[in-house]
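From the shared-data thread, chain only:
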Amino acid sequence: MLIEAQAADGGKRVDTFLRERLPQFSRSRLQEWIKSGLVLVDGAKVRSSYPLRGQQTISVTPGELPPLKAEAEDLPLRILYENQDVVVIDKPAGMVVHAGAGHTKGTLVNALLHHFGSLSSLNGELRPGIVHRLDRDTSGVLVVARNNAAHQALAQQFQSRQVEKAYLALVHGHPRPAQGRITSPITRDPIRRTRMTTHLGTGRSALTDYRVIEEFKNVSLLEVRIGTGRTHQIRVHLASLGHPVFGDRLYGAPVAPGFNRFFLHARRLSFVSPSSGDSITIESPLPPELSGYLDSLRHSK
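Structure, as tokens:
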């Protein structure tokens, strides 16, 4: 489809302009199309932040829409624990939890549906069983609800902060004090929409506790616990202190040659089993690429 930008549209970001003209599509979907080269301005590829000059022709070739429901796929799945209510997964880095813009295949949900057939339906057919999430490049423990009653019980535990979530994060620099709490509210960055920010002083409340457990020459290993589950919470909170997660270039970390993810791992999750009332704690060991990097730091001390 062809859309004409008028003189009055000069200065608008191309993704903002398209959102105005094509309200049936989400901003994230339009940005994905721009990134994939499906949007051309006067025949040329541009970035989402490209400012229009006005009197230009924008060509949009709609990309494939995601499925209306998740589809089972035979994918590897490491199960740490399961009972009639829940499944606890050791999610690898690089795996998206559920389908979204640009990601319809290879998701954790697709793998779960293949292994278990059905999960709770409270979050709809695209996110069955999903009570909480981990970022694509965060590895570690994630609990999934197998039925609606379990889903409701777990959601209540998360909401009331009864679930203990502990992470390991390698960050640049040496945080001072070596133990602290971050409570800055988090909102989406109005300029770089793929990021979150604490700089505006507004947004959703967030609570992150950290403590340094090991220091090296230029980096520190932290244990991090969160009382809320905001998008990119640990990453943006630690970056707000001037200590971005190692490898996390989105939040200002320098390039880490040979390191293809960021160093953030969901190490431990504790919750109450919905049916039995038993307290359950599940731990995930550091994956080889993270433990190996830590070993190299220790040997170079």
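The longest strand covers residues 164-172.
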